[in-house]
Write a structure and sequence with these properties.
The chain has 402 residues and is α/β, with parallel strands linked by helices. The chain contains 17 helices and twelve strands. Keywords: Transferase.
Length: 402
């Protein structure tokens, strides 16, 4: 068996929706034993949310399936004193705890960092929130689109004559997940050196601002906000030709490229009057329209071939389904699948990180609620009689059809 980099690392995962589950899936892909602790019966809220009211296999949310492979599910009623006893017993041998409840919720249940630290001083406890643990926004809901609006990315996206535009994916949450992993891995390395665990705190607000640092530095140091273009220019701070352009049968992107070379390919020498750095910014919308008129006369593949031959930075604009069929995506083996107990074959995007000695892999489907409750309780040392009693009285749970 090929070794995995995080084998032997046990994660108690109390997180839900996207931020925390994506972080723990990244660890699970690398071999960590992630035990997802969910509400009996209902489980993670993402189990009941889906796009376009479509369910994989008729009953599984694609949103949940996307972020929960390679994990085991244990269903526990966290309000039960006996459930807390189980968790603290498991904490004795755990390495990481992840949670993204609102600030203070876990501590009120006796499941805060200080509670875990008393049982296991080596524990790394990671909390994710919308806006941090205190301050004027403490009671606000911390949701992806709301944070995009608060941090400038929405006001900088889209065209000037349209409403501020959210990114078409859970960008804030996914940045938050990456920051969780960054903090956890750093804390685990520190633990190897010092023998001490610690608390890691991540919030969506800080993450989104940090990942827009070039835009923030520009705006703050010049005292000027970006102005969105009214055309297909791809960034509020960029000049022409940077942006998206139409063709006869689709759209292409053109990034930072010599304007003179571009108009030579398009056979538009009359546009040389724009070839000046200040003009390329000041008249970027006008220039975009002139360029778009000319790119619109080409078939997409023919234009791309001509632009690439001239070393113009360009590419196709593809839908999600087209991206899944992309030849480079196929070459990298990025689209994979697994067998789910009720949904059947589930197509997924595989791990994005390569490891020469300890490659990640998909070894488990996203679990059913409480699918591994008995298994995990047995591993924790509880006898069959106790487990049956807890399943009957609601302290623990397992799938209804099991």
């Amino acid at each position: 068996m090929t070794p995995m980099a995080l084998e032997g690392i046990r994660v108690l995962d109390f997180s839900h929706l996207l931020q925390g589950p994506f972080a723990t899936q990244l660890m699970a892909d690398m071999g960590a034993d992630v035990i997802k602790i969910e509400r009996p019966g209902k489980g993670d809220l993402f189990r009941s949310l889906t796009f376009r009211n479509k369910w994989v296999g008729g009953d599984q949310s694609p949103n949940f399936l996307a972020w929960n492979r390679n994990k085991r599910s244990m269903a526990l009623n966290l309000k039960s004193a006996e459930a807390r006893e189980v968790i603290m017993k498991m904490a004795e041998t755990a390495d990481v705890v992840i949670q993204n409840f609102r600030p203070g919720v876990m501590a009120k249940m006796g499941l805060g960092y200080e509670d875990f630290k008393k049982v296991n001083p080596r524990i790394v406890y990671c909390s994710g929130s919308g806006y941090g643990v205190d301050g004027p926004y403490q009671t606000r809901p911390g949701q992806d689109m709301l944070v995009q609006g608060l941090t400038g990315v929405m006001a900088a996206t889209g065209q000037a004559d349209q409403p501020p535009t959210p990114v078409g994916a859970g960008f804030s949450d996914q940045i938050g997940a990456m920051n969780m992993i960054y903090g956890i891995m750093t804390a685990l390395l520190w633990r190897e050196r010092s023998g001490e665990g610690q608390e890691v705190s991540v919030n969506l607000l800080a993450g989104m601002l940090a990942h827009q640092n070039q835009e923030m530095v520009t705006a703050m140091n010049f005292g000027e906000d970006f102005e969105r273009p009214s055309s297909g220019i791809g960034h509020p701070g960029m000049d022409a030709p940077f942006g998206t352009y139409p063709t006869r049968d689709g759209w292409i992107t053109i990034a930072m490229s010599p304007f003179a070379t571009l108009i030579d390919v398009l056979d538009a020498p009359e546009l040389k009057v724009y070839d000046d750095p200040k003009t390329l910014y000041d008249k970027r919308d006008e220039i975009w329209r002139e360029l778009a008129r000319r790119t619109g006369e080409w078939h997409r593949d023919t234009l791309l071939e001509a632009l690439l031959a001239a070393d113009i930075w360009c590419g196709e604009v593809k839908t999600h389904l087209e991206a899944a069929e992309d030849p480079q995506v196929a070459h990298l083996g990025l689209i994979q699948s697994y067998q789910h107990p009720t949904a059947g074959e589930v197509k997924v995007v595989g791990p994005a990180v390569g490891m020469s000695a300890t490659p990640p892999k998909i070894s488990r489907p996203a679990p059913l609620v409480g699918e591994h409750t008995r298994e995990v309780l047995r591993e924790a040392g509880y006898d069959a009689e106790t487990i049956e009693r807890w399943l009957k009285d609601g302290t623990a749970g397992e799938p209804e059809n099991k």
